[in-house]
Amino acid sequence: MTANEIAPAARPARLSSMLLRWVLLVALGVGITMSLVQIVRCAVVTKEQAREKAHQLLDVSAGAARQALENNNAAVAGQVVSSLLAQSSLRYARLASPDGLPLAERVRPLQHSALRFLTDRLFGAEQHFYLDLDSKRDGARLGRLEISLDMAASGAAFMREAGVILLTGMLGLVILVTGLSLVLQALLTRPLARMVVGMSYIDPQRPGKHQLGIAREHRHNELGLWVDRVNQLLRAIEHINELREEAEENLQNLSHVDFLTGLPNRLGLQGRLDSILTRARQENKAVAVMCIGLDGFKSINERYSFQLGDWVLRSFAQRVGGQLSAELDSFARLGGDQFILIHSGLENSYQAAVLAQKVLFLLHQPFRVPQEGKGDVMIRLGASVGITLFPSDAQTSELLLQKAEQTMRLSKMGGRNRYQFYVASIDQQLRERRQMELDLETALAKKELFLLYQPQVELATGKVIGAEALLRWRHKNGEVVSPDIFIPLAEQTGAIVKMGEWVLEQASEQLRIWTDIGWQDMRMAVNLSAAQLHYDGLEGSIQRIIETYQIPAGCLELEITETSLVQDVEMARKKLLSLRQLGVAIAIDDFGTGHSSLAYLKRLPLDKIKIDRSFVQEMESSTEDATIVRTIVELSHSLQLKVLAEGVETRATEHLLAELGCDEGQGYLYGKPVTGETLLDHYGRFSD
User: Fold this and answer.
1) Cys-Cys crosslink for 54: which of 129, 164, 172, 395, Cβ 3.0 to 4.6 Å?
2) For residue 118, what are the CA distances in angstroms to 113, 159, 160?
3) Residues near 387 by Cβ (< 8 Å), separated by ≥ 6?
4) Is the separation of the CB atoms in 608 and 590 below 8 Å?
5) E strand or H helix at 307, and its extent?
6) What are the residues facing 295 on neighbouring strands?
């Protein structure tokens, strides 16, 4: 059965019934309420009439009763009582002297009434009234005339009147409901039913061709206006449908294209990759799918602007597409800073590695970004590339893309600016990484973490003046996990904040031990991660530790990487100022490997610069590295900052650093990281 067949018969009947029910309920409620109000008023009037009747009888008999009391005449008193009980509504009469003794008294049973069980609850079985009688000569108290009014007759009269009220109200209700239902059907239900029938003929694809009609008497009221608006809406819908059909043809192409770079997006790539795989199966050829993730791209947006970041993404897409187009079957953007390269017809995996290396080389060339009113900005990028091969790694486009992204993420974890092939064990690596995350969460509670300390030496005197606290993890299987593995993992999971607070606690306790046994002026250096620097409770935690272990001013040194600082220089400045107020020293770790800038060095409250080992270890053979170290030392001294060189391993390097003016050194030349007790045993006497 179609909608056209059921609409005319079903909908009007349902609407009429619903309207009639609501009208009936409303009218019934109003009628009952009004009837109840009238009945209550009738009950009040009945009580008042009984009271007036009783007082009239008392007033009429007052004279004779007073005479009987004055003369103490029982015969007259009996006549008074008998005359009162001549009234059928009276049940009891009594004339009594002031001492309460009755001069005359008479009582009879209550009248029988079928409705007495109800009227007695409303008015009571009887109502008692009395009149005190005084002497007219001297006003002396003569006695009291008492009567009891049987309420059966008054109750029966009330019930008759209440019945009339209810009957009249219900009759009016029936007349009202009948009239209203007829009016509603004529003026609303039937016109709406005709409109429903008319709507059943509307074609959803071409709604403007059929217009709804309305009776003449409704053309200028709300129904007429509603029909006009519906007809306008139907015409507008038809026009919009025509525009939509035109737009869908254009959107079909745009939905497969990345708006920013003009490259195919994930949806467009999927179709192309399916076609490439189909052809590769027919030709028995291999296909390489490469996922490229730009390294450190987030810091570009944060340091400069999102507009500059978008410019870099477009430039990268143009550079790769322009210079490698002959070798690519498809080049697409997945979103964010991730791109996909597809290269088919491979003879061996070496060809894919060559192509990945070309991509890394293109990224190594700096991007010159023009800025209005300012000098050009030079941006250098690296990338992590994950490579999967068809058909060895996966058979479908979905799995190839998924595994390429997984491999790219593993490449980032293993060391950036490199490429990595997917291997069958990659799923196992992902499971092992997840297990390591779970183990790391409980490592602190299970006391698997411990600290080692590497000495820091003053180059001018050879004196050990400090030590850096280094976190280590001895896994439950007995192996020591490299910090390069578990520290990034802790930063990603958020566990680094709790671990960092534990490191501060342990290092401060060790410093207190050294100080108490006489190793004075010893400085303890502790690394802070970016997550710790952004942690709101950092200052309170450090203040508590300083107060607990009574750390001497300046003996606790916090080391922060350049990357942590440049993410938000203004925030970092405020944070470091609050830390300096606690009496701790501030050092920049691994200086030279990040976005080194004189601008933020001048703004930040720093005490020391630590030169990264990558510059120090090649100083003897590289004039360029020696020049970089000399520049850093001179720059730091001009800003009144101390300089410490990491990675000092030979005396020649130590001598060269001293000649360049470096203040302090740290490295295997002075000792590997050891326990606090071992460090004190080996170097404690040098500080005397």
Assistant:
1) 129
2) 10, 9, 13
3) 288, 289, 290, 291, 349, 352, 353, 356, 404, 407, 419, 420, 421, 422
4) no
5) helix 306-323
6) 382
